[in-house]
């Protein structure tokens, strides 16, 4: 999510130990907000028993 707007989605199945990875590059400003969200559709969760990892890095400063 970027300032409340959905940017990307990753889908998983109910198989044990399913994993997904995704890379998104955004142009953000100082007051922007960026976060991830686990949206529970029909009782499905992200891998890791409901655990999600998010990391960010500054590629370059404008």
Structure description:
The chain has no helices and no strands. It has 62 residues and is low in regular secondary structure. It has one domain. The model has no long low-confidence stretch (mean pLDDT 77).
Please provide a brief summary of the model:
By secondary structure, the chain is largely without helices or strands.
Which helices and strands appear, and what pairs or packs with what?
Layout: no helix or strand
Domain C1q: 1-62
Protein name: C1q domain-containing protein
List keywords for this structure.
little secondary structure; elongated; 62 residues; single chain
Would you count the extended β strands for me? Answer: 0
Number of domains: 1
Main sheet record:
none
Average pLDDT, rounded to a whole number, is 77
In whole angstroms, the N-to-C terminal distance is: 21 Å
Helix percentage range: under 10%
Quote the beta fraction.
under 5%
What's the shape? elongated
Low-pLDDT parts are none
What class would the helix/strand composition place it in?
Answer: little secondary structure
User: Looking at the chains present, what oligomeric state does this protein adopt?
Assistant: single chain
Q: Compute the gyration radius: what is it?
A: 14 Å
What count of helical segments does DSSP give?
A: 0
């Amino acid at each position: 999510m970027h300032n409340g707007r959905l940017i990307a989605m990753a889908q998983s199945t109910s198989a044990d130990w399913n994993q997904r990875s995704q890379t998104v590059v955004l142009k953000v400003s100082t007051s922007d907000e960026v976060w991830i969200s686990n949206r529970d559709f029909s009782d499905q969760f992200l891998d890791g028993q409901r655990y999600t990892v998010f990391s960010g890095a500054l590629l370059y400063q404008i």
